[in-house]
Amino acid sequence: MSDDPLLRVDDLSVHFGGNEGILDRLLGDDKGVVRAVDDVSLDIGENDVVALVGESGCGKTTLGKAMIGLQRPTSGTVSFRGQDIWKSDLEPGDIPYKEIRKSLQMVHQDAGNSLDPNRTIFKNLNPALKKWRPELNLVERRELVHQMLDTVGLTPADDYASRYPHQLSGGEAQRTVIVRSMLLEPDLILADEAVSALDVSLRVNLMDLLLELQEMFSTSFVFISHNMANARYLAGRADGRIAVMYLGRIVEIGPADEIIKNPQHPYTKSLLWATSGLSEINDPIETPPVRKIDIPDPENPPSGCRFHTRCPEAREYCASNTPDLSGMSGPSDRHEAACFDAHDRIDYRNSDPIADDFDIDVADDTEQPAD
């Protein structure tokens, strides 16, 4: 993997809704704003694999779309090979936006709805080739489609090319969508919950296919999932990383094996606890390692560390200070966590623990005089 990143995300934020007038911005009125992504920085290398995991609504899909140019950021930058993908005034040597979009592709979660039901598989795949590979004639495009269908196991290719989407199984439709992206020879593919709708056995087969294609075409993958087991399988086998998101921010990132066996952020630990087959790897506990089950409102996220309202290790310092994502001491310099406890901050240690609501209620009860 090159030292220079293929894609760099720097202090990226994506906000939705709220008051968007000039006066509101000048006065700092952000009422009703959903901070889907907040100050995220991330590098993706050549032939790299990063699995983004987190609960629904944590901002992982919005971050992924911003990374490949499908969502304009509110602030921050996304750079492809050192160039801001939203740069409008191109200079000699710059990469045209058209080429950047061709290099950054996406595999959608619902493959069936991303295919035209009134067209055969070949006619679904042909337009992308016709647009991006104008030097190919119809016969050459058809041959290339057949080769890629063979590559992903859709054989006989001529039979599958003449089928309609409703004649495909869920796994076959997902493979077809992968073919559509791979035909453009992209540098990076965003796979958004690409296996979540499939049976467990089919998920493994499809993830193995993605890994084979990554090795075959040296393509980088950003794999979005709410399932830690899927993230571990894909990132682990590719020597990639797992990035854990919570309320718009990456709270921990590192090699898959370290994230699974040596999690540092309490939220990562709670995800592992909730994942069958992974909760027993570390010290097993019976109760959820969170203070509260409910997720805070993304329009009004907690101050300081956003996880402090649910964190069993939270102290008063966490409520008023935001931890940076910084490196952990250990076998890998790629493991980072945004947690005062993990980094053993003195200010954190010297502050008082945050009392649970339950503890407060108990205290109130004991102070009431007896009848």
From TrEMBL:
SUPFAM superfamilies: P-loop containing nucleoside triphosphate hydrolases
Stretches of the chain forming a coiled coil according to its record: none
GO molecular function annotations of the record: ATP binding; ATP hydrolysis activity
Region called Disordered, residue ranges: 350-371
Domain ABC transporter per the UniProt entry, residue ranges: 7-272
Keywords noted in UniProt: ATP-binding, Nucleotide-binding, Transport
Superkingdom per UniProt: Archaea
Any single GO BP term: transmembrane transport
Biased composition (Acidic residues): 354-371
InterPro entries: AAA+_ATPase, ABC_transp_ATP-bind, ABC_transporter-like_ATP-bd, Oligopep_ABC_C, P-loop_NTPase
Entries under PANTHER family matching the protein: D,D-DIPEPTIDE TRANSPORT ATP-BINDING PROTEIN DDPF-RELATED, TRANSPORT ATP-BINDING PROTEIN
Family: Belongs to the ABC transporter superfamily.
Protein known as: Oligopeptide ABC transporter ATP-binding protein
Organism of this sequence: Haloferax sulfurifontis
Highest classification ranks of the organism: Archaea, Methanobacteriati, Methanobacteriota, Stenosarchaea group, Halobacteria
